[in-house]
Write a structure and sequence with these properties.
With 482 residues, the chain is of the alpha+beta class. 39% of the residues lie in helices and 21% in strands. The protein has a 9-stranded mixed beta sheet. The chain has a 3-stranded antiparallel beta sheet with strand order 5-4-15, with no helix packed on it. It has a two-stranded antiparallel sheet with strand order 3-16. Helix 3 links the parallel strand 12 and strand 13. The structure holds adenosine-5'-diphosphate (ADP), magnesium ion and zinc ion.
Amino acid sequence: MTEWEAVIGLETHVELQTKSKMFCGCPVDFGDEPNTAVCPVCLALPGALPVPNREAIEGILSIGDALNCTLTEDSLFYRKNYFYPDLPKNYQISQYTFPLCVDGHLDVDVDGESTTVGITRVHMEEDTGKSTHVGESGRIHGAEHTLLDFNRAGVPLVEVVTEPDIRSPEQARAYGMELQRIVRALGVSDARLEEGSMRFDANISIRPVGSEELGTRSEVKNVNSLRSMQRAIAYEITRQIEVLESGGSIHLETRHWDEAKGVTKPGRTKEDSADYRYFQDPDLLPLHIDDAWRERVRDRRPKLPAAKRARYRELGADERAADLLTDAGDLGGLFESAVAEGADARTVAIWLTGEVVAYLRREETEVGETSLTASSLARLAEMTTGGDLSATAAKEVLAGVLAGEGNPRDVAEARDLLQISDVNAIEAEVDAVLEQHPQALEKLREGDPKPIGFLVGQVMRATGGKADPRMVQDLIRKKTQE
Ligand code: ADP
Ligand code: MG
Ligand code: ZN
């Protein structure tokens, strides 16, 4: 039996959230009435001329920079010719030779194992309009008519193409997640798969383990979640192995992922790049990006997810918490500031990724909208490690702070949660409990440790849960030795 290896390369489209479209001043604003954000340029009326959008170019450069690419000095715009009803010009302005960014890489981790995925290129494109096929099928086949909305036509689109360096569906998913995090960290797109502002095409082939040659690939489109992408790739690998092992062959084709059935179905056979009749757009000059511009892009690079993760771990968050904090936007910053104010990293990480995340989800709000601050977290952590609050009481105080009841000390007092720190007061309770339970005390004295839990529980109950259980236990031990 042949042992097979999967070879995967991903193409990702990201819609940029710029103020205006790629080559005209129409607003990039989804949810408008159809065909209201349009003009002669994006409707391709005769004589209209495109003007590149600086903000979009910078967005692309910042993605390329974050993916460790070389930012090219001179870049060219091409026309990619094809007919489609939602493409008014009958060509898309894209890039071919001399894209804006080339030769980068991105490291992805799966189960603690890191793989470097080469980035072939990051280039500029423009989006098409949107077709809605009206009819029972919802697809073009069997549709009664098709509605066209050109509001999206000409929205800046970035394409990120990887080398065929990915070897498993899990790695593909991890790559997708990391790219999504990066794009969001850069603030250039909301990168939502469900809404199509981030879209993946997965190219998949298989080859015998040890072989250096690439097999024939199929390209799976239509995946609208990272989970679907992972499933589609896994399905495609199995399908290709079955085809090859039963003596068949794989054709270069696009396939569509059917989420409900969990299978890929054949689409069209793929065009060759020659079919697109690429040529340089005569309406656009070559784009020269000088050193100063590239320098500015690099200077503006924010702290990227990988660096944040490493930083949170270094501060004391465990692996899972560091991932969660990285993904949770503002929470990561709050964590860092709270630790800077002296809070215990582990405790704060647990609160933020547990109670706080749950609260924000439940209330459908952002942490910035709550009264939780780095210093209130630090005070709360201090009260907990200092023995003023039990772990359980601390969570209750946290809930009060989130709900806007005041600072941790006020909440703890108002909710009557402060632990009794007066040793004499606790000792009196301990004495009372021991007096009520002489047999338990006797057993302890004889060296049977079992009753200790029971006795601590009795004291906790007598103090309304406000004694420090460790202190209670120490006191009982001391009494046993008297
Ligand atoms: P196209 O636009 O025709 O899909 P591109 O060159 O833009 O071509 O993208 C090809 C993608 O497919 C890249 O991500 C590349 O890594 C990947 N790829 C190319 N050959 C193979 C192969 N044999 N198996 C898997 N992936 C491949
Ligand atoms: Mg492709
Ligand atoms: Zn326009």
